[in-house]
Structures are given as structure tokens and as C-alpha cells.
Design goal:
The protein is of the alpha/beta class and 322 residues long. The chain is built from 9 helices and 8 strands. The chain starts with 13 loop residues before the first helix and ends in a 25-residue tail after the last helix.
């Protein structure tokens, strides 16, 4: 990556548009997020939808070939869709490269027998329906952490609070991080703060939030934010590569998630989806390279958090004893 200090950051098309009298208004310093990751840096990277050891191997190989730095790799089908041997293989492969591995927890509404999620309203969405679904998520969390997984992906407020309480009580390792799914991501500062208080260590926000929305959130919370730079079609299919520098400026500390639009869904993954899963895993890394190249060309690729960093820093929580 280029040394950002050697090149003054510029906005896309800035010189040419200025020469034509079409320059944009100056950026407002008050819009910038004042927050960073602990240990320094304003952005980290994540490759999502890595559904098993074979897809992980493809991602790691392609990341090495294209020189794409990776802080976190996440999976969407769930802990319960992987064998112990598969989880262990993924844990070992990511640990060798000091990459955080994040696995999704348990049952969710879209796969349940309840019909409300299939109505036009979407019903209860991804939430865990009933005690048994919460119990399944907890079972997944315990199993995954016992096998060495350090990050758990959650799509339900009750499950999030339960796992946070379990972590505080020593029933899960203290360094376990809890990541809120993009499928239930908050869209305003008040709800973002609630998820922080419930125990989230990083929070996915929908990829259609405006730059002003990010600034509003950063005025009340320093919790790391996850955002798809390119979103899957079921999350809108947005492609925001040219906005990456400004997304970082407004939203830091920010995980840049390299998703893929115009690709069929692969959850829950099985070998019947193998070729598609491997091909899309490889392309997600390439999309990451494209986004990082844009940052470099604009002199805005400085302030990446050190590779291997994963903890969120000190966050605000609800009182568990109350």
C-alpha cells in the first residue's frame, strides 16, 4: 500500500473538476469521526460469506496473491452447519495468519417454521423464535468458543444480551467478541447505542445509510461499525467503492466488508453449492483489492489498523446486575 503521508488525500476527480469550475464544497471537519480502533487505525477489513474450510483456503490464497490485508473473516450459514473438524480447521488456518474468525450463531427466523417472515411485512425477521431458538444460539456459542472461535455473529437482541451476560459471568471466554448481523442492523443513533449497551462489539449497519447518518451515529457511539462496501443483492446490491475514503472519515472505526452483488444466495451452505461458493469467495477478495486500490489512488489508504488487531476497546454496557 502507498504511504498516505507522501500524497495529500484527494477526492475522486478533484483536479479535473476543479479545473472545469465544478469543484465540490470543502469537507466539513465537524463531520469527521473522532474515534479510532484501540491500538490505532481507523479501518479494518472483512471478507464475509466464507462458508467452510475450502472457501477459507480460497480466500487466503487469493488474499496473498492480490496482497489484500484481512483483519476478519466471517461465515453466514451458522456454527450448526459445520462439523467440529471443519471449525477446528478454520480456527487453525486463521490463527496462523492472526485473522479473526467470526461464525454465525444458531437458528434464525428466516429458516424457522413460522410463516411471518415470508409475508410482505417480513414479520420478526432473523430473530430467534422462542426459548428453543435462543437455546440453539447459546449452544452454538459455547461449542464454537470451546473449539477456539473468538467472534460470534448474532441476529437477535435477546441472544446478544444473553451471550454478553454469559461472557461477563465467565461462561464464555472474556475476549469473545459479539458482532451484530447486517440483517438486523440499526438505522439511527439511538438504536445503535442500544445494541452497544446490549453487548455488541461491532455493529453492522445497512449499506444504504447516508454519510450524514454515519456522522450522527459517531456523535454518540464509538463502537466499531461494519459496512458492506459492496452489498449482496438481498441487502440492496449497493456498490459504494468510490465512497470508501469518506465512509472511513465519517464512520471510523469502520470494518470495510467486501461483499458481492449479482450473486445467488449460498445460505445455508452445502456441497451442492460448492462451485458457486468458491467462485464468489475468490471474487470477494478481488473486490477488496479494487476498493483498496481506489483508496491508494486517492492518497487515503493510511490509518489502517494493525493486522492482527481485533478487540473493540472500552464500550458502554447496560448494568447486568439490575
Amino acid at each position: 500500500m502507498t504511504d498516505a503521508s507522501a500524497t495529500a488525500p484527494r477526492r475522486p476527480g478533484e483536479q479535473t473538476l476543479t479545473a472545469l469550475g465544478l469543484s465540490a464544497p470543502a469537507l466539513d471537519p465537524a463531520d469527521a469521526s473522532p474515534h479510532t480502533f484501540p491500538g490505532g487505525g481507523r479501518w479494518r477489513t472483512e471478507v464475509p460469506s466464507c462458508e467452510g474450510p475450502e472457501a477459507l483456503a480460497v480466500v487466503l490464497k487469493e488474499a496473498s496473491r492480490l496482497d489484500v490485508p484481512i483483519h476478519r473473516i466471517s461465515q453466514g450459514s451458522g456454527v450448526w452447519m459445520l462439523t467440529d473438524a471443519e471449525i477446528t480447521e478454520m480456527v487453525e488456518a486463521t490463527a496462523e495468519r492472526d485473522i479473526e474468525l467470526c461464525l454465525f450463531t444458531g437458528p434464525r427466523g428466516t429458516w424457522d417454521i413460522g410463516g411471518s417472515t415470508r409475508t410482505d411485512s417480513g414479520g420478526a425477521g432473523l430473530r430467534a423464535r422462542g426459548h428453543d431458538a435462543v437455546a440453539g444460539c447459546v449452544e452454538d456459542a459455547v461449542r464454537a468458543t470451546e473449539l477456539g472461535v473468538k467472534c460470534l455473529l448474532v441476529a437477535d437482541e435477546g441472544v446478544l444480551w444473553t451471550l454478553h451476560r454469559a461472557r461477563a459471568a465467565g461462561l464464555l471466554p472474556a475476549d469473545t467478541t459479539l458482532k451484530l448481523s447486517a440483517l438486523v442492523g440499526p438505522v439511527n443513533p439511538a438504536s445503535y447505542a442500544v445494541y452497544e449497551h446490549l453487548g455488541a462489539d461491532s455493529i453492522n449497519v445497512p449499506s444504504d445509510l447516508t454519510l450524514d447518518h454515519l456522522t450522527e451515529i459517531r456523535r454518540i457511539s464509538a463502537t466499531p461499525m461494519d459496512m458492506y462496501i459492496e452489498a449482496p443483492d438481498d441487502l440492496g446490491g449497493y456498490v459504494r467503492m468510490y465512497e470508501v475514503a469518506e465512509l472511513i472519515r465519517r464512520g471510523a472505526p469502520l470494518y470495510l466488508k467486501f461483499g458481492l452483488s449479482k450473486a445467488p444466495g449460498i445460505y445455508p451452505y452445502g456441497h451442492h453449492l460448492r462451485e458457486l461458493t468458491l467462485a464468489t469467495a475468490k471474487e470477494r477478495v478481488r473486490r477488496g483489492r479494487l476498493a483498496l486500490d481506489l483508496l491508494a489512488r486517492h492518497g487515503a489508504d493510511g490509518d489502517m489498523a494493525p493486522l492482527g488487531s481485533r478487540l473493540p476497546g472500552d464500550l458502554i454496557r447496560f448494568d447486568i446486575s439490575s
